[in-house]
Amino acid sequence: MIVGVPKEVLEGERRVALTPAGAYALVGNGNQVDVEAGAGASSGFPDEQYRKAGARLCSSAAEVWGSADLIVKVKGPIAQEFAFFREGLVIFSFLHLAASKKLTDVLLGSKAAGIAFETVESDNGYRPILAPMSRIAGRLAVQEGAHLLAIHHGGKGILLGGTAGVAPARVVILGGGESGMAACRLAVAMGAAVFLLDIDLTRLTRIAEMVSGNLITLYASSANLAEQVEKADLVVGAVYVSGAKAPRLVSRELVRRMEPGSVVADLSIDQGGCFETSRPTSLEAPTYLESGVIHYCVINMPALVPRTATLALSNVTLPYLLKIASLGYEKAVAEDNYLKRGINIARGEIVHPGLAASFNQA
Known about the structure:
The protein is α/β, with parallel strands linked by helices. It has 13 helices and 15 strands.
């Protein structure tokens, strides 16, 4: 099989979908790996490392896309890549199709197959590819949120952990999944007063038992959510529904009731965002002000630490790439339920139930 690794073209995206070590493994299994020149440079992987691993260096994206049976990317394709789609091509990437009707429609029309990293899922709901990126994003949300609370960024001018005789910042986390848990751990470690809300009481119990420190877990009722968000210095939105649009948990009116200089970090922005006031931003221009509240809604937050993120991503995607390349797409998804759940679009049809529901096709 020919596996293509194009250079990421989304603004600010510095990760690469395959490391030289991953290329070496694929080539060693009898596959051809085509890598666009410069694809790994921002993650610390120069072209020469791919060449030594046995990959073929290509001078253009068209060359990579044109010959590949399987394209592996970090972020889903954008408009300038749509012309490369064709029937029989398999795209393995973070797709987040529920938030992009245009990409969905183009994939459907091309009859290319789309396997979404974020919906590769186990029988018990664990998402092995999404999980490491979620953990990185959760930590970065607190790290960047603490930074934005400083006065020279327009924040309230408060220290996340406070100091002797002064209360710490109040951090509210919506959702106790991988990203919410990672945000919780770091915020508690930094000394913040942390309030984590979720509708899963079993999960809340487990988190309360695992995290020692200044943490209060609350059931995510409308009343609790409104009360905590209004009082918060930093709110981290960390909700995810597999393949579907994120629920809008925080209304525009509730954001208006927050104190000026407060910060919201919406980790659900890839799926449309869980704040009514959210709109996608980039690492080059990560924030905007809405009702006096600083919004951080970067759609590819782990790209802020591309070396760490690339290594973490490749660790979990490589086994699936090897399986697809070895068995072929059809047989691989037939034998692997995790991969089967990852299929969003195939043969010109939406096959993932969460995505279908988002476009009223359930």
